[in-house]
UniProtKB/TrEMBL annotation:
Organism the protein comes from: Metallibacterium scheffleri
Protein name per UniProt: DUF4148 domain-containing protein
Compositional bias ranges of the Polar residues kind: 114-129
Basic and acidic residues bias (residue ranges): 104-113, 181-190
Region: Disordered, residue numbers: 96-129, 155-190
Keywords, ordered alphabetically: Signal
Secretion signal span: 1-18
Amino acid sequence: MGAVLLLGGSALAPLALAQQAPAPAPETTHVDHFTDRNVAQQQRIEQGLKSGQLTTREAAHLEQGTARIDRMQSRVTNPHGAGGAGVTATEAARIQRAQNAESHAIDHQRHDAQTGNPDSLSSRRMQGDVQRNLNQQGRIAAGVDHGGLTNREVSRLSAQQARSSHALAGAGRNGFVNGREQQRIQRGDNVRSRHIYSARHNGARRHGG
């Protein structure tokens, strides 16, 4: 009987150890953090334009930086890309460094010697374009926060937002946004707006943090 009890105890020991061992940390998506920060960055660019701290050319340069970040986010949230099923801590840290660099660039441009005229036609056009970009980023962030966007959908929408910011950067690179450029940007934004609405209301849900 003692041998049987000893055997039973030794058989249970590995199970007890397994129960006591800490579970592996789940892979964190981090998606909610960097989509919220996208909104904050766009708000600061918009505020800089409206206050005259940013010229049209400076805002265009900053939009190129946001386009780069959106492309990075698209790659790591793509389930078939580098990010796999989620975003790893290493990938999230890389994006955070890029966002920190963009934040420093915004701060530098808003406090350098150059000033813009927020009432000029070009600045007003850029302000309108940045405002629409901000609205789109806000809807994506809200979709992530409420679980209405999957990582796959965030990947696709981030790629589209990258194109939007790239278009803004190209239009304002010479310091002036003309009416034709703005119309082209608006047509693209309208398409992206419909894509965001569709992705948020198609019934797919995001899982994880």
